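Minutes, project check-in

Agenda point 3 was the complex the collaborators sent over. CS summarized: two entities, 600 residues total, and the question is how they sit relative to each other. Sequences were read into the notes so everyone works from the same version.
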Amino acid sequence: MKRWTRWFPLALALTLLVLSVYPLWATGYGVRVMLQLFMWIALAQSWNLISGLTGYVSFGHVAFFGMGSYTTAILVVKGMAWPLAAVAGGVMAVVLAFVIGWPCLRLKGPYFAIAMLGLNEVLRVMASYFEGLTGGGLGLSLPTLDASVRIYYAMGLVALAVTALTYLIVTSRFGLRLMTIREDEVAAEAMGIDTFRYKIYAFLLSAAAPGIVGGLAARDMGYIEPISVFPLVTTITMIVMVLFGGKGTIWGPVLGAVILFTLQELVWAHFPHAHQVLLGAIIVTVVLVMPRGILGVLQQKYNLPRTV
Amino acid sequence: MTPHITPVMLGQVIVSGLLAGALYAMVALGLGLIFGVMRVLNVAHGPLLMLGAYITYGLFAAVGLNPYLSLLVSMPVVFVIGVALQHFLVRRVVDAPELSSLLLTFGISIALVNFAQLAFTSDLRSVEFITGSFLIGPFAFSKARVIACLFAAAITALAFLFLQKTRLGKAIRAVSQSREVAQVCGINVHRIHMLAFGLASALAAAGGTLMTVMVAIQPEMGAVYTFKSFLVIVLGGAGNYPGALLGGLLLGLVEQLASLFLTTQVNEAVAYVLLVLVLLLRPTGLLGGRAT
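CS then shared the predicted structure for the full assembly.
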């Protein structure tokens, strides 16, 4: 454990340094790949904030991604600078989270999970319906702009920020409250925790990054349509990454995102059809065999601190 | 937008809503059964319905079997699948925190949908068996919907008879009231869980089979029924089986009434708005259920 605490910050600093100069010598393709990895880290980390910490499963987190994408795309088309528009995307995602969270998080049980399951479908329908604003099924084209390097840094910043936020939360009293809700909500209430308030806080925080990242992704792709920004598979991938890496931990989602993203790029790209059977099988296996994920298993085996 | 709504239209819509609602009620009864007995929300309920639909489609396309007769195949087959799912997978998370069972059944549902995509491709399929409508006075009712409603009502009635009158049915209700006490009384809880999961799956499959003659079949058709079934349970009150019937009819009515004013696309969102409203205003359901 001593050894860990010594070399871990060092390795982290080195990784960040390498990543921050990476675009100087990387190919355009390399930058795009890393940018997507950052996106997945931010998404997985966000899902972990609500579902990993409080135990309230969000089956539709991609809804916030899509909300951010559309907000940003519409604002960019109207002439706003993309970084500002992406932030606006994050704000809109938080507003949406509030509208959904207010009725659903007051209750215990699976109400929240099901509400999130339906949300994505509804938003996709809405995006197709309000053609004047969203272009409907035809989608929206953003003005061309070569900004991958800037988007790379923006994505990296968001991923870093959510990870730092998770660290702050997990090591704080706020995080302890969230984890108490996960372990036993009735006991949490008996201890005087206003569970509804903290669940809502966690949910709002978990919606912000997907909104921003969705906006950045929209700028990067240059074209969005309802199917491309509300895919169920994105939610599934987020969930698998977190479960695989270790839910409720700080670095688990990062680990899961890196491993799964690498596998996806190298291996699964060749078997696109059976992709989801594999993801489904991973979820079932992880839930049954190692519910704490890779990092959880490592923590237990080597007696690592919770913050690693 | 329809500026003039005549009484005939209204009557037509109300009956259509009740016809659709009977089907919702039957499917939701299955989801409610699992939820009541195990406190597990089965996210794979809709995909099991989808399997039932594909079994019927497969038999119709291959040997031309009457879709209504194929209930005799789809229900037992999916019953067995449900029992197996419970025995091998879901059993292990019944006592775990909710997160585990939700994620597990979600994983199962993804795998089922992708399996259907591999086996049947994502093309839309349909079973053209009964077309046309019954004309009664000024009303016209699609024959397929009327027959589906009758079958759904009969199957639901049988399921209720089973739950109310038979020893096994009583055992299921006992387990859903208190698992520990049921166990003390000598009820094999694991077997009751398997039976409940199997029955629930069979009800979903019946829904799928009856739908084949009315709607397009495709691998992703299920998710929306998981959602709607849950809404029906919420409307009726969780753990309240007769409530599920009322909830189903109500959902059918509201959807059909909304279709008078809204275009089909936005109509999809009606069930969603309804869920949010009910959770806000009356989270214990209309008839009142267990406290949450």
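Noted in discussion: Chain A is about 75% helix and 0% strand.
Follow-up: revisit at the next meeting once the mutant set is ready.
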